[in-house]
Design brief:
With 296 residues, the protein is α/β, with parallel strands linked by helices. It contains eleven helices and 14 strands. It folds into two domains: 39-134 and 235-285, D-Maltodextrin-Binding Protein, domain 2; 137-227, 3-Layer(aba) Sandwich (D-Maltodextrin-Binding Protein, domain 2). The chain has helices at 8-26, 39-46, 72-84, 100-105, 120-123, 171-179, 191-199, 210-219, 245-260, 263-274, 276-281, and strands spanning 48-53, 62-63, 69-70, 89-94, 111-112, 127-128, 133-135, 137-142, 163-167, 184-188, 205-209, 224-227, 234-236, 239-240.
Amino acid sequence: MIGSRRGWWNRGLLLGAALALLAGVASCGGPQGTAARSTLDRIMATRTLRIGMNPGYAPFEMIDSTGGMMGFDVDVAHFLAGLVGQDVKVQIVKSDWDPIIANLNADKFDMIMSGMTRTPQRALRCAFTNPYFTTGQTLLINSAKHPPGSVKSVADLDRPGMVVATRLGTTGEIAARKAFHRASIKTMDTEEDAALEVQAGRADVMVYDQPYVAITAKQSAGRCWAILTPFTHEELAIAVRRDDLELCNWLNVALEELRATGTWDSLYGKWFVEMPWLRAAGDTARAAGASAKPTP
């Protein structure tokens, strides 16, 4: 804060005002108790953690064959709920991606955990926790046009006649436009559509986040291959309302516990290494990106 010395009289007035303000705070929002209860207080009172998700980003949040939700983020959500209390339930509120931050600010859920990359643009509209996952943009390449090993970097594909597919309005699109100056950028409505362009040979390469590209390359072996070393750095974080500092602080402590207990490592192995879900989920849980999701 910026201030100046104005003498003991002004300081006395400020002290008196501060004491009056503290008295109001101590009474839980004034004599009528009209101040809004904090989000964390409400979670503890209702025993419900409401989490906004945009399903479809394997393996973070997906719809399984029964119509339920599964994924890395879903398991992290249940871990967080357990830290509040064993009887606290997770309520997943599905949201389209474009209005997801607006829905958060409209109090339709308490937080967003949906593979969201924290960016300066998004931070103007919501607050972010410390990152819980680090990823980056990678390349899914058509095998017929560019045999495995024939491409070493972005520069090898940045030439006239090359077609680069990605999802419209995503951090993947932003990265593609920054990295490719001579190739043509082809934007699609979904990640799956962009991947299909590469698989069908209508595009040479797809730019998207590492988990999605790794899984898609595995699913389309023979048609596509991948360069999985990211050429960007992106951090996924939980989003809360900008004035929810109490909840944000608690989540940061909880995320530390997630790693300290070994739970993060266990969940990473389950969803990114062993991947039993890939066999069980089938077509209902095909990858459809999120860390590179659109910037609402």
